[in-house]
Write a structure and sequence with these properties.
By secondary structure, the chain is of the alpha+beta class. Helices cover 41% and strands 32% of the residues. The chain has helices at residues 5-20, 24-37, 42-54, 58-71, 79-91, 95-108, 113-125, 129-141, 145-157, 161-164, 173-180, 196-223; strands at 225-234, 244-255, 259-269, 274-286, 289-300, 307-319, 322-331, 346-359, 362-375, 378-392. The protein has a ten-stranded antiparallel beta barrel with strand order 1-2-3-4-5-6-7-8-9-10. Helix 9 runs parallel beside helix 12 (196-223). The protein is elongated and about 90 Å long.
Length: 393
């Protein structure tokens, strides 16, 4: 069958419809079929670039964009196509290229609220909080309503905001799907190209839709959060250190990443003895520093009544996703955590640790504890390492 222009128009309409439903393979099929009929059409080619990016195929999207501008050098005269080039760096989390690219873009199109929002988030990722807030507030003043929602949080949380906020809403290609979903017009062979007023109207609708999405997510993000941590530990001295140290810890963040309460259920086993522990904790975020107070109630398998101890820990988030902890505390005489070979009178301990977020909603940690058991003039030290994994919901 020989396709005519009307057929291609229907194909592009279909590609957009299924693309907005995230049926990307189907959408790409119809976009590529349209390009076979009109290979020089920059609008269809740009749409194909977006589909590749939305579906997570960023290297292919970059190649497709390079082919587009090589075939049609004037394509960058269109603001949407010009921004798409910088978006590819932004979605690929190349923050330096993104800030440089949006700066160049804004020198040509200075009052673009979307570009200002994205550059602000890229500045945030680079740790440039003041620049980020400036861009977000300017974007807000130009009608970028999503920027109004996030500017305050970036200011409060600093450079860590856009990492902790789910990437699909802000800094990945999927967010672009939200801002462009309402664009129902098909632009084929230049016949249906929108005028400036139409472009601005659609961008404004996209901003409002993104604001709704971000506001809804932030409402739950601020209100509460839940996570579970599991860990195992070991010591270098089988007689003195516990043979098994393992715990599971659910955590409820009453105000997410601001105030949290945790309850650790812990098991310690030595060669001939052991103890079960309950360990509630209460923490608060103070900018990049988190303070946590933890109480231990130990129930030995055999021996004295339940014993008590406590620890105060400070955690410093040095960069997004990487934090260092330092703490100390002490406890009762004959604490159940004491090694069976020491008739302890009391104990004190210090701890240090590091946590890393390799992916959204996952945190791994490594912790070292040095515990000194004191009995009169005698003292003995115990060392322990523990590896943990926390999953956030």
């Amino acid at each position: 069958m020989v396709a005519d222009a009307q057929d291609v128009e229907a194909w592009v309409e279909l590609s957009r419809a299924v693309g907005y439903q995230q049926r990307f393979d189907e959408a790409l099929h119809w976009a590529e079929r349209s390009l076979e009929r009109y290979p020089a059409d920059a609008d269809i080619a740009a749409w194909r670039v977006r589909l590749l990016a939305w579906s997570g195929r960023l290297p292919a999207a970059r190649d497709a964009y390079a082919a587009l501008v090589a075939r049609t050098p004037t394509a960058r005269d269109d603001p949407e196509t010009a921004m798409l080039e910088v978006d590819l760096a932004f979605w690929g989390r190349d923050w330096r290229a993104a800030t440089d690219g949006f700066t160049a873009y804004l020198s040509r199109f200075p009052d673009d609220a979307e570009a200002l929002r994205k550059r602000g988030l890229a500045w945030s990722e680079r740790g440039e909080v003041d620049r980020a807030v400036t861009d977000l507030e300017r974007s807000c003043s130009l009608g970028g309503q999503a920027s109004c929602v996030v500017a305050e949080d970036v200011q409060r949380r600093g450079a860590r905001f856009s990492v902790r906020l789910e990437p699909g809403f802000i800094s990945e290609a999927r967010a672009d799907l939200v801002t462009t979903r309402l664009e129902a017009q098909v632009r084929v062979v230049g016949e249906l190209r929108l005028g400036l007023a139409g472009e601005l109207r659609l961008r404004r609708q996209g901003e409002e839709l993104l604001q709704d999405s971000v506001s809804t997510f932030l409402a739950s993000w601020r209100a509460a959060g839940f996570s579970i941590e599991g860990a195992v530990g070991f010591g270098p001295d089988a007689d003195f250190s516990p043979r098994l140290s393992a715990w599971i810890e659910p955590s409820l963040e009453v105000v997410r990443d601001l105030v949290w309460a945790r309850l650790r259920v812990w098991r310690l086993s030595f060669a001939d003895a052991g103890a079960a522990l309950l360990s509630p904790a209460l923490g608060i975020e103070l900018g990049p520093v988190h303070a946590e107070a933890r109480y231990f109630l130990a129930f030995p398998d055999e021996g004295p009544s339940p014993t008590h101890s406590g620890v105060l820990q400070l955690t410093w988030e040095a960069v997004a996703g990487l934090a260092f902890a330092l703490g100390g505390g002490g406890g009762d005489a004959m604490d159940s955590l004491s090694a069976p070979t020491v008739d302890g009178g009391a104990h004190w301990l210090v701890l240090a640790g590091v946590t890393w977020e390799p992916a959204w909603r996952h945190e791994v940690g490594l912790r070292w504890v040095m515990r000194r058991e004191v009995a009169g003039t005698r003292a003995a030290d115990r060392h322990e390492l523990a590896v943990s994994w926390r999953v956030l919901f």
